[in-house]
Known about the structure:
Elements: E1 7-8, E2 25-28, E3 36-40, E4 43-47, H1 56-63, E5 82-88, E6 94-100, E7 113-115, H2 125-132, H3 142-158, H4 167-173, H5 185-193, H6 201-220, H7 228-237, E8 242-244, H8 250-255, E9 264-269, E10 276-278, E11 282-286, H9 291-301, H10 306-310, H11 315-320, H12 323-329, H13 336-342, E12 346-353, E13 358-365, H14 366-369, E14 370-372, E15 375-376, E16 382-390, E17 397-403, E18 414-422, E19 428-436, E20 443-444, H15 446-452, H16 459-472, H17 483-495
Parallel strand pairs: 3-7, 8-9
Antiparallel strand pairs: 1-13, 2-9, 3-4, 5-6, 5-7, 10-11, 11-16, 12-13, 12-16, 14-15, 17-18, 18-19, 19-20
Helix pairs in contact: 2-5, 15-16, 16-17
Flavin-adenine dinucleotide binds at residues 75-77, 242-250, 267, 287-288, 312-313, 317, 320-322, 324-326, 328-329, 334-335, 378, 383-384, 411.
Amino acid sequence: MSDPASTEASMPGEPVRDPDHAQRTGRLMDAAPRHLRFWHRGQMHSVEPPAPHTTLLDFLRIERGDVAVKEACAQGDCGACAVAAACLSDDGQLRWMAINACIKPLAWIHGKAVFSARDLPPAHPVICALLARESSQCGFCTPGFVMALFAVYQEARDRPGSPVFNREQVLDAISGNLCRCTGYLPIIEAGLEMLQRPPALDFDQGLAAMRRALLAHRVEHPDAHEDLRAVLQRRAEAPEAWVVAGATDLGLRITKGHERPRSMIDISGLGALRTLQADEAWLTLGAALNLQTVFQCLAERWPSLGEYLWRFAGRPIRNSATLGGNLGTASPIGDALPVLMVLQARVQLLRWDPDAQRVLGRSLAVEDFILGYRQTALAPDELIAAVQIPTRSFNWQVAAWKVSKRFEDDISAVSLAVAWRRDQDGRVAAIRLAAGGVADRALRLRSVEDLLLGRRFDPAELRQAGEQLKAAIAPISDARASAAYRREVCGNLLLRLGAHA
Ligand SMILES: Cc1cc2nc3c(=O)[nH]c(=O)nc-3n(C[C@H](O)[C@H](O)[C@H](O)COP(=O)(O)OP(=O)(O)OC[C@H]3O[C@@H](n4cnc5c(N)ncnc54)[C@H](O)[C@@H]3O)c2cc1C
Ligand code: FES
Ligand code: FES
């Protein structure tokens, strides 16, 4: 398992910025069975360590009889099971997010608080706004919408300077929720007005008590395994354990594949993998940062990537899913992969060397990390620690496009990312192209890059490059698209570079 290229790694430092919720734990579900402690319905609870495959939905519905948490798709697609989770940031403030309980391992809730629609008082502004707009017919989807809106409501309430929502923010909040009978307009209108309604003061007081309890829990139960080194040691001892980050991929292996892992290593809150740092050479994105945070950072740096990135799933999935998970999954339609490839990103891997008693690290270009259909260069004892984007990519122009059957919350049929620099004459001085959905893995398109080098983005050149692209790819036909469609569409996407001529 040792790699000759591995060198002693400096452990990732303290986060410079960890804007999302931070729970500094990497819990080893099988190593030291401990009780799960979390806030639910007005008090801290302590429950027996669950079987690793127990989902939050099963716990809430079956153990707690909370039928407001619905099960429909059981694969993160519809939002019927949405609940809101709160946890403490490093500075002790509450952070809120909606998540899909159906695919979330229960263990994730340790040290956090969980709310379903049943836990909100009738006078809560989100409920009042939805009622006033008559936003429900059969009501099956409604608890999920309540929680999607509630999470962003609380997040806005707890932060100064966000007094209103615009339509885009509301659409983003409910982007993971489906309603088949009411229609979305009244729900959107409720979302737009909920912050203007009087707050539920009793409920807010309860939240203050909850924050105190979570703070006390943090002091009283510092996690024995919060250290990255300990997690890497455990990884080396138990290579068969599932490494779980957001569980938006692994969760489906439980609910749809009916797999039952013997043990899990939950890295979702490991502080050392949730850092976001920039120095003169690298932008370093911790592997366990959620995609909402990562995409905000990338879209700030490259606004042209914004639309592409925000089409990754819906908000609750982005609240959970991580960059490490997108790499670890190595899906040919993993949306982050083409973008990381053209930004010349590298994957930082860490492992524990038991002989030398030290942490070793190595770094691979993303295209060298992805070896084939859901295959990576990750050794059984390694963890993905971070993704590093060289700062020299900052002055490249970037564009990316995703084609899917549905515009929102859908997985790509085809994707294409391009990054380029021009010389003083406006010719392409350097270019990188990568595509998803066109082969057994996300793919660099080097022959097309060679063709476009030294050229301009004029229609004739791009058409020729588009033909070259079609010849360079080997898509398959599946439920999302036929091979012929994928080939044609991907070649045509390249023509969009004409807008950057
Ligand atoms: C409804 C829905 C919509 C989706 N839409 C999209 C989409 O639009 N685009 C897209 O690309 N994907 C999409 N996905 C797939 C999924 O969300 C992504 O692949 C996501 O990035 C996985 O991240 P995760 O943290 O949840 O991974 P997990 O499920 O926790 O893990 C996935 C794999 O990576 C490994 N892993 C995770 N972190 C590490 C680490 N640090 N070190 C070593 N191994 C690690 C795990 O062991 C596992 O093998 C969607 C999924 C769902 C359920
Ligand atoms: S039941 Fe559909 S997202 Fe969970
Ligand atoms: S109210 Fe019936 S599915 Fe939304």
